[in-house]
Design brief:
Length: 279
């Protein structure tokens, strides 16, 4: 059938989803109009960027813009060929040991003073079975889920997952709604309700935003291991193994193949990147 001159057909053309950007989109405008609108668009982007630079300052000397540029460079190196994971051997984790918590606090610049609203990027939790008397002390943090509920419920896209499986928060667009905190079954995120000082330049934090474990992503992207894993190996019981879950030759994959490991709330089918042996 011959189409009328004003009729457009989209048959056979893939539809792009939200957040996707097409290459070389042709909107049907004359070349002159297209160049003019491109100039207007460039001007808009410059104004938005200038406003962001002036507004998004978390604390004296700490700017989200600088962090975003660094994060962009790092994210560009994240690969879907890698899925970072953490295996925690609870039989080696003593209840009296909290070096992992101290290392995370020191590296990322947060403090927990025992108040319900304090940050808890990582915390020690006592797990017990009242019927058998079985008890273990285990560290709990963001589980960096493959099917992350925090990402699903975030209305702005601030909660996102990198190609390598690390779940993060983009504080540029976090509005502090705390939907992610309600959705997380591990209670792994915290809301910043106070002004902050003495922040770490590689881990800026902002009042009115949500935060949680990042697996020390600046260290990972520099070829190092998370601060908690390093501290546990050096000063603790060596209970933590970090590595690429997609690499059959990695230490974590070999350990998972040799001994069974459990997921926290496996019934939710969230595919966490953190596994526990001995539970």
């Amino acid at each position: 059938m011959r189409k009328s001159p004003g009729e457009n057909s989209t048959a056979g053309k893939p539809r792009r989803g939200r957040g996707e950007v097409g290459e070389g989109r042709n909107l049907g405008q004359p070349a002159e109009r297209g160049r003019a609108e491109a100039g207007i668009d460039e001007g808009r982007r410059w104004l938005v960027g200038a406003a962001a630079v002036s507004a998004l300052v978390l604390a004296p000397g700490v700017s989200l813009i600088a962090y975003a540029e660094a994060a962009g460079r790092r994210a560009a190196g994240a690969s879907s060929k890698t899925r970072w994971g953490l295996l925690i051997d609870t039989t080696k984790c003593k209840a009296s040991c909290s070096v992992c918590v101290a290392a995370c606090s020191s590296y990322n610049g947060w403090k927990n003073e025992g108040r319900p609203t304090d940050p808890q990027w990582i915390r020690k939790v006592q797990v017990s079975d009242p019927k058998t008397g079985f008890s273990r002390s285990v560290p709990v943090m963001c589980q960096h889920c493959g099917n992350a509920p925090c990402v699903e419920v975030c209305p702005t896209g601030a909660s996102f997952k990198r190609a390598d499986g690390i779940v993060l928060v983009d504080r540029h667009i976090c509005i502090g709604c705390r939907f992610c905190m309600m959705a997380c079954p591990y209670k792994a995120r915290s809301f910043i309700s106070e002004n902050l000082t003495n922040q770490k330049p590689w881990a800026p934090r902002g009042k009115g935003t949500v935060e949680g474990c990042t697996l020390c992503v600046p260290r990972i992207d520099a070829g190092k291991i998370p601060a908690c894993v390093e501290a546990c190996s050096r000063e603790g019981g060596g209970a933590m193994t970090f590595g690429n879950l997609k690499d059959p030759q990695s230490a974590i994959r070999r350990a998972l193949a040799e001994y069974p490991a459990a997921q926290l709330r496996a019934d939710l089918m969230l595919d966490p990147g953190v596994r526990y042996r001995g539970l």
